[in-house]
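Risk register update: the risk of archive-format incompatibility is retired. Evidence:
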Amino acid sequence: MPTTPKWYIPVAVAALIWNLLGCVAYLSGVSVKPEDIAKLGDVEQAIYAARTWWAVSGTAIGVWGGAAGSLGLILHKRWAMPLLIASLIGLIFQDVGLFVLSGVGSRVGAGVMALQGLVLVIALALVLLGSKAREQGWIA
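Archived output:
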């Protein structure tokens, strides 16, 4: 296996931590109780009400696939790539369901949209990193 650059493992570890934070956010989002949702503002309640099963499933695939794919990058495993691709696709499903089809996107504000845009950019960057790692022989 060719020598990987010095930056590769720290970036992969940061990606794993990022995706594990996403896993925590996902678990807290799916375990919130109706009485806690009732205490939220109108926009936050609308977000919870607009979540379809397939958008929530997309979120799950996005965060868990991203975490497993990042672990695969750390371990130099070829199976990281399909997981990172699935993660990106899952996040796209989540965003389309939540922000486009539900109509909630126009109400969430620039901060939420910017954060979700960052999530998508990082997921895409991880797919590109995995592709480069495969081409360079860093994962096998």
